[in-house]
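Dissemination and training. As part of the outreach component of the grant, students in the summer workshop were shown how a complex can be specified as a set of sequence lines and then modelled as a single object. The example used during the hands-on session is reproduced here so that future cohorts can follow it. Participants entered these lines:
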Amino acid sequence: MRCLFVTIVILLSINTHVSPTAANLAVKRLPVQVQVPLPRAAYLSSAFYDESCPNLESIIHQKMSSWIKRDHTMAASIIRLHFHDCAVRGCDASVLLNHPGSERVAEASRTLRGFALIDEIKAEVERQCPKTVSCADILTAAARDATIMAGGPFWEVPFGRRDGRVSLAREAESVPQGHENITQLLRTFEGLGLTFVDMVVLSGSHTIGRCSCHAIKQRLYNFTGTGRADPSMNAIYVDRLKKQCKYDDSYVNLDFWTPRKFDTAFYRNLEKKMGLLSTDQLLHSDMRTSGVASLMGSQPELFDTQFAVSMVKLGNANVLIRKEGEIRTKCTAVNSY
Ligand code: HEM
Ligand SMILES: *[C@@H]1O[C@H](CO)[C@@H](O)[C@H](O)[C@H]1NC(C)=O
Ligand SMILES: *[C@@H]1O[C@H](CO)[C@@H](O)[C@H](O)[C@H]1NC(C)=O
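and obtained this result:
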């Protein structure tokens, strides 16, 4: 309390000291107002649907909760679906469009799930608030709820995204698949306005969910054409995975120890050479990311706080606002009017 008081006093004194500078006066004297467009995310607000669809968050929460009770794997799948949406053309629900040649048909989208759940939420939202709420906003809030239901942190979701009208399969192939190097990953995240900290922290969502054996079989059997397993992987872990991966379409857990719990075991796995994806293991071994990875492994509360912050940033990535997009009436198709 006392500390807070002191901080406020300091802040106030800095402000009064700063305000009458020459720079400030110069701005006021400018003859024409300079147009500085705000970042798009500044047009989003957690109060966006307060009047137009006050029940929105409770509809989403109720549907998410009843699906996840029946099928707990849906939590991870919705979080991933949101990431794949934001990674291509920003968080604009382009991943939900279902037509020939759309992102959904890309090889990189093959194991995405949760479309039917989003459709069901959208149908109920349309019943209560017709033509009001974008699919991009629904998916973003669903990912937040999925995180909570898996045991992760809460955050306020800013709303006001619009839905895109374009979805191209070839663009979906640029979403990281698990065999990239850190430089490539950093570049991808940079394009979303995300830093190396966000990248390490958001990768922490691999503390829940599964991976198809197809995606890791190179790593188990023929790493970079050597005919062997990736040497950066624990040998006992490799043997176990080989036993679980009889078929390409079998699944293994991304977090070996606590696959259903949203915790920081993911980062501690990396210290034991038990990262399932080589990209995850690299977070631990690459100098640029290893510091943040070990910090997150040892500080669960810091991880929760930063995960919430980074998810808001992910959800703000390259969003469409106002006339840049539309409010789809069905998440699977652009409006025909
Ligand atoms: C850093 C780059 C990333 C790479 C290379 C990557 C790669 C992958 C791969 C290969 C899978 C398994 C897909 C399969 O079944 O074949 C997966 C699953 C998953 N990813 Fe990522 N991912 C990345 C970042 C993220 C981010 C930023 C999030 C969320 C914020 C995320 C959330 C998930 C979740 C929750 C799953 C489990 C999905 C399920 O169980 O259905 N990933 N990821
Ligand atoms: C990362 O991958 C890119 C593209 O394959 C390659 O050009 C680059 O040399 C790699 N960087 C490192 C540090 O391995
Ligand atoms: C391993 O990979 C190399 C190059 O990627 C390929 O030429 C070779 O046929 C593969 N071996 C097996 C057993 O799949």
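The chain has 15 helices and two strands. Students were then asked to discuss how this feature might be tested experimentally.
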